[in-house]
Design brief:
Number of helices: 14
Radius of gyration: 27 Å
Helix content: 40-55%
Largest sheet: 4 strands, antiparallel
Oligomer: single chain
Structural class: alpha+beta
Distance between the termini: 66 Å
């Protein structure tokens, strides 16, 4: 990274881009409002500024609204970076919490250019608690993504987040997915209790996606549930919006044996139109609440005797059952609403039945 001194101003090369800066008549240093891809463009910009000074037309640059004064610091750049992202309310709240509670207090005032890998490692090992692995992973992943943007913009030469395996969480418990016979027992429950869980266990829908389903999203003729929105809650407010990622918008096939149960349930619903929620709240208009879904799932776990399973574990069941039928990785990605194969792998498990079958097949080799 070199800096070229000139009669007026200076041009600094940063990771393939060029930053122009100068000292104004007020003896304050000013940077160009953006980086330049070509040196000649930076030179032209400095020439224009110099000519305005000579003609006595120069005025101190007006700060761009929304760009913090401390943009060179980690906290300032991070807030500016997150403000420009398209995020769901729930995700924006979560990222803000991670930034303000775990990142900014210890590293927020450090200038981006002074962030070194050793400093990031010390922060990761001392500030982030190993007892909360998911939070630790999310905080590190957020910091890494912010600094990746800084690298792309040429503000730093290289992303200093280089802690090996920091973006992974070791599974702390083995999950034994629910089996078809167990899931089918849920059909004996009242439909508003059993069906929201069934759609997670067979179709891999998230809790917010189940709560966000509208009647139009259920196509029983084609045998498809269309995931187009999800319900989230932030600071006491309920939001209904698009799924967290583009991959979350998807169509999932419904196992045919469930269609008669879903058809009977829909036929018994009060008439409120196709835009009405499939699982409405007590007022019949708003989506089912988190509390109501937790109550329904509590009933479901008792029916199948699986107190070890969380609601989210039902997604593991859906992925494992699909895998047992021979679903490809691409098909599992589409079904689960994930953009990467690595995320899908987290939901695939060796069941007792598959383990026994594998062991038996291996034992047959001894007979040869």
């Amino acid at each position: 990274m070199g800096q070229e001194r000139r009669a007026f101003g200076s041009i600094e090369r940063r990771s393939g881009y060029f930053r122009a800066r100068y000292v104004g008549p007020d003896r304050q240093r000013y940077d160009a409002p953006h980086l330049f891809s070509e040196r000649i463009d930076a030179e032209f910009w400095l020439g224009e500024v110099h000519r305005s000074i000579e003609r006595q037309e120069w005025r101190p640059p007006v700060k761009v609204k929304g760009r913090p004064d401390d943009l060179d610091t980690l906290a300032g750049y991070a807030r500016h970076c997150l403000a420009g992202r398209e995020l769901t309310p729930r995700t924006r709240e979560e990222y803000g919490r991670l930034l303000e509670k775990l990142i900014a207090p210890t590293m927020g005032t450090i200038q981006l250019k002074h962030l070194e890998p050793d400093r990031i490692r010390r922060w990761y090992s001392t500030v982030l608690s190993a007892d909360r692995p998911v939070q630790r992973k999310h905080a590190y992943s957020l910091l890494r993504s912010i600094l990746r943007e800084a690298e792309d913009e040429g503000l730093i030469d290289r992303n200093p987040c280089r802690v090996r395996n920091a973006g992974r969480v070791r599974r702390t418990r083995d999950i034994e997915p629910a089996m078809p016979a167990e899931l089918n027992k849920l059909l004996d429950l009242p439909p508003k209790q059993g069906l929201p869980v069934v759609l997670a266990g067979w179709c891999g829908l998230r809790s917010g996606e189940v709560r966000g389903l509208r009647r139009r999203d259920l196509d029983l003729t084609e045998g498809v549930v269309r995931v187009r929105q999800a319900v989230t809650r932030t600071k006491g407010q309920v939001h209904v919006g698009a799924p967290k990622t583009a991959a979350g918008v998807r169509d999932v096939g419904i196992p045919p044996h469930l269609i008669p149960y879903l058809a009977k349930y829909v036929a018994a619903l009060p008439v409120t139109g196709r835009d009405g929620f499939l699982f409405p709240g007590g007022d019949g208009v708003s989506p089912m609440s988190e509390k109501a879904l937790r109550y329904a799932y509590g009933k479901a776990r008792k029916v199948i005797g699986r107190e070890d399973l969380t609601y989210h574990d039902m997604r593991h069941s859906a992925a494992s059952l699909a895998g047992m039928t021979g679903a490809t990785t691409a098909e599992l990605k589409a079904m689960m609403g994930h953009a990467t194969a690595g995320m899908v792998e987290r939901y695939q498990h060796a069941t007792r039945a598959s383990r026994s079958r594998l062991a038996e097949n291996m034992s047959k080799l001894a007979e040869l």
